Amino acid sequence: NICLLFSWATIVLLSLTRIPGRYLTHQEGLPKLPVPPLNQTCDRYLAVLEPIIESEELNQTRTLVEEFQRPGGVGERLQQGLERRAHKAENWLSDWWLQMAYLDYRMPVVIHSSPGVVLPRLEFSDRQGQIRYAAKLIAGVLDFKTMIDNETLPVEYLGGRPLCMSQYYRVLSSCRIPGIKSDSVVNYASNKTPPRHITVVHNFQFYVLDVYNSDCTPLTVDQLYVQLEKICNSSLQTNKEPVGILTSNHRNSWGKAYANLIRDKTNKESVRAIQKSIFTVCLDAPMPRASDDMYRTRAAVQMLHGGGSRWNSGNRWFDKTLQFIVGEDGACGLIYEHAPAEGPPIVALIDHVVEYTKKSDIVRTPMAPLPMPQKLCFNISPELKKDIEEAKQNMNIMVQDLDMKVHVFSYFGKNIPKSYKLSPDAFIQVALQLAYYRMYQHCCATYESASLRMFRLGRTDTIRSASVDSATFVRAMDDQSIQNSEKVALLEKAVKAHRAYTDMAIRGQAIDRHLLGLKLQAIEDLSALPDIFMDTSYAVANHYNLSTSQVPAKTDCVMCFGPVVPDGYGVCYNPMEEHINFAISAFNSCADTSATRLAHALEDALLDMKALLEQTPKAKL
Ligand code: COA
User: Fold this and answer.
1) In degrees to the nearest 10, what's the CA dihedral of 556, 607, 295, 320?
2) Distance 424 CA to ligand 1 centre (A)
3) Is position 2 within any domain?
4) What CATH number should be reported for the domain holding residue 305?
5) Rounded distance, CA 487 to CA 184, Å?
6) Is residue 8 domain-resident?
7) Any idea which residues are catalytic in this one (predicted)?
8) pLDDT digits over 538-553, tens only?
9) Mind listing the pLDDT tens digit for each residue in 437-448?
10) Is 449 annotated as belonging to a binding site?
11) Could you give the C-alpha distances from 113 to 46, 108, 304, 370, 516, in angstroms and in order?
12) Pair 503, 610 in one domain
């Protein structure tokens, strides 16, 4: 395809020209995240509670909100504090958010925080194929890294506005570090001597692989292949201590074990090498075979947790920001530590790498022999051995508890909602509301991530998908007494309300981060927490039974993550033009949830909504 070749050639040429200062200039041109008006947030807060809170309780909350926003009251004082903070800081929210949402969060990063990505199954089923693909993948990531290093990464846009690109500069050469009460993140990319190595893990054994030649050119695919082969041949024993599984533990336990681990000098150096590495490649052992239709579900759990201590869970360093996973059986994907970035930059990197791996093999050139990659050694004391055993047990409990279903909805994709002049994302979110309502006969607090990257250092806010309009539609949908034409009108109204909420959120006017900011301001001021934050409605509103996210990619992949509450679902989706990939998770320990049941209900909801539009010809424009 001439066009593709041309655009590829353009990318290659552009990426090789270094444009120093371009990134900073771009960043400085971005607006600062606003602090929304207090009354606007208070009014909108009451509106989002309506579909999820009983009326009596809501009346009580109304009184509390009125008191909170009273002129001269506590709300105004906190708002002023927040505005002062916004004036001084580059982004009033981002440091707080990083700390609160990630670094202070003490649940294991596995399942509870780190998303996985499942790529389509690759066509190999042996060690040679695995190494060949891994070599291409590494070369592809290094190619992407050239654009980051040279500041030539194309700026992204949302709704016609340029986006903050800082997350791209945080995902390579970085790692989370555990602490006893709170974690931190280190990034070595901007060091005077930035790292030149990646780490490779095979049969639980870690290696340092230098990926640049002495003339600073990246190793070729052939060179990488030879190096990976050496690593595999020297790590054939399968009885090694899975020291990496420590990173899957509860953060406080891991924080303690970490202090213990790095007391030993050799261990400390090995851990530093992993933390400093550009990224990690996990060469996984084959997992139990799955039928073709179960493949993506099985691969999703492999990416999210590795399958348990018997399988590949020890073949990871879960604190590492980026870990690419290549299985001997053709399973391929990644897991990333969430603190530095959201899904979209990660899948943009994947899209680039997948395109790169499709390029035909480069002609072999004679190669000078390269040194053997260095194996990272660990001294395992009896105490560490105990920590590893405990981490294995906890991991296996988590593995047993995760109920995962990857569902490819194959009847339509973005095309159908678009043909009815409806936002595809909003259409899918309304279908999720319908599916949930049909299963539980009530609406629940629903989280959809909205990008705040229009603003400097922006992360996310929440689109609350359960709205007065979605609730009216889902109640009407199965009501025989209501005419189809009315149902169509309600459907359109719900979809448009969702899109309007999205527009408000991406422009920095949603309510959730603002409310959080007011709460954190009260804590920072050492004043009593206002009653609205102690109220049951606030707890219910933040108990997200549906935690959802759209992560679109050009590649036919899907991102996946766990639920955020014990009785909830995690739903991530990649809407393609003619199909939609969904990854749905729940916990087996909750008798009321089932990922498979929600997948079926969602499929029915999408089909029923399409049928409803079709039955009412005037709907199509
Ligand atoms: N009629 C016809 N087409 C429409 C339409 C309408 N009324 N509304 C939207 N579309 C089109 C859009 O132009 C777009 O076209 P494209 O496929 O050519 O790009 C497409 O439909 C998709 O638009 P939509 O479904 O409305 O969603 P979006 O792309 O605007 O995304 C969010 C919405 C909320 C997902 C996005 O704003 C966002 O914030 N993304 C980041 C989420 C995130 O960070 N997730 C990761 C968390 S780890």
Assistant:
1) 50
2) 7
3) no
4) 3.30.559.70
5) 50
6) no
7) 338 (proton acceptor)
8) 999 999 999 999 999 9
9) 999 999 999 999
10) yes
11) 29, 7, 10, 38, 19
12) yes
